[in-house]
Fold each of these.
Amino acid sequence: MGLTDTKLRAIKPATTAKKYGDGEGLHLLVPAAPRDGRFWKLAYRFGGKQKTLSLGEYPYVSLADAREKRTEAKRLLAQGIDPSQQKKLDKIAQRHAHATTFNAVADDFLAKVGKEGKADATMTKKRWLLDLARPDLGKRPISEIKAAEILVPLRKVESQGNYETARRLRSTISQVFRHAVATARAEYDPTTNLRGALTAPTVTHRAALTEREGFAGLLRAVWGYEGAPETKAALSLMAYLYPRPGELRLAEWEEFDLEAAIWTIPAPRTKMRREHRKPLPPQAVKILRDQKDLTGDLPYVFPSRLTRKPISENTLNGALRRLGFTTNEMTSHGFRASASSLLNESGKWSPDAIEAELAHIGADQVRRAYHRAAYWGERVQMAQWWADEIDAMRAETR
């Protein structure tokens, strides 16, 4: 007589291993204490040898499930197939299938890029972009994905008006497919068939005054600003130091060593997610000391008068609008392009020192380390020269 659920529930651990048969080689093995568990086994003969096939643990594999597995094993035996060998082949196929899904290749690609030393910001952006594609492509074998399938997540992004994000998503998906080709998991990159299929984004550049005469006029306007003194101070520091606007707006007093004339921007606030030190010329130190008299009792250098939170980028851009500069002429971010252009045109400073001061990423890890160390002395001199040059431009006659 075979087993029943009632009999199975009544089985207790024993001091010696016991088998409880259900017929046709199927039995439940209860190991000797202290080992726990109750395991389904199927005894059978293949090729003249006695063999045993594991079918899972009770109660996670029920009696009905175990009998179904027995029936399937008997079917394989009737076809001259060893059930144990077939089970091994099925596991290998399952692992292989998982390793060749879009998700698996994407994860492998991200690991590879991470080992190459890409910036945290770059890695975060790639992960975010690929997460947009995973719901539609993730579980599909990458070698079977066609261009029309890739178009599905791209159209979803486009439908929200994010044309530039859709373009970058297509490019990132293409990188995953090229990695799949290189690792013999796909034969070609189907995204090449999507060229021209996406809506082209409108390219807009941050406006900046990069000619000396125009920039000099801007400086005179900034120094003549009659609005809030903290806004004037922030715009003046944007001219002297040309950081990213968010780096200055969110600056806290603890980041500044005014005695050593160094501003250390913490890694979480920089675009490249690494700490960036900037030398402070005396002109910038004076502005900061004056500002500290106003806000030194607060954590932020430039708090809003109403909320005590940092001023917004609209505050700086709004001030530029009130000074008469349109969005097509100048933005707060444009101070960086102005400084970069004029510093490079001067011919006095090495391009790498200028790039290091701008906190732009170098070609590789070695170059980035070299920027931080070897160019510091040159950057200190350049900061002083640039501050003096700004003062000279402000004093120029119109």
Amino acid sequence: MLERHEIEAFLAVAEELHFRRATERLGLAQGRVSQIVGRLERRLGVALFARTSRRVTLTPAGQRLYDGLAPAHQEIQEAVAQALATGKGITGTLRVGFSSAWAGDMVLRTAEAFRRTHLGCLVEIQEIPLYDTFGPLRAGVVDLQLTEFPVEEPDLVAGSVIFSETRAMMVPADHPFARRESVSVEDLARAPLIGVTGASPPYWREYIWPSKTPQGKPIPRGPTFVYWLEVPPLVASGRGISVASLRAARYHGRPGLTYVPFCDAPSMDYGLIWRRDGFTSRVQAFTDTLCRIRAGRP
């Protein structure tokens, strides 16, 4: 019979294939996982891992044990989570918003894991328009939102940064900047900048689409947009340039566009926000699930 700590230590090493990372993942003292696995191997009389100075791999016996233990361990974890969710009243509907495609990917992954452990709670997901980034949350259309920071609203709470993206300049493919490896924030003063219009706070718009460079040079204004999908064709047609996440090239790339990273701009930070009076057990459970997935602990 295997003890719980032996199962968890074995599974952590089998998934990380690295004793130090497995130790950090379990929050144990340095060397503790190696001791547990070593005792387990001696008790079973078989080697579960092949160790060299450079790598750790599963032996055939270790792989067979992992294939048998991992699904059962997952089922136990989900059963416990479901029991806790029932006891805490995590039922009903949770509405989660996102403001970009890459934030949407994170929300969808989290929702899939959340549904497995909170069977009594329905998750609804929707995109939040940039022209009114806090409006749906305030109106109760969504309960929780993964969005661009900064957030400095007295009625809203911002959690910690979940992930950060490199900031880039979106330019026409024939623009002189397109031939560079990187650009400077000061270069924004040399071309009209396409920005968002609408009800989003001025400080939020200024952080993403600034009106001046760090040296105080005015940035000429180009056309404005309401929905982000308007931006790529505006840039490709030469109407102006835009600021975007570098990752946007994977979602909004098209002929006639180039994304050039900034060498001196702050990152684009994303995090969860919720109403100050709306931190329910559902919101907390979804937040915990997202943080575990982001940390590599699904």
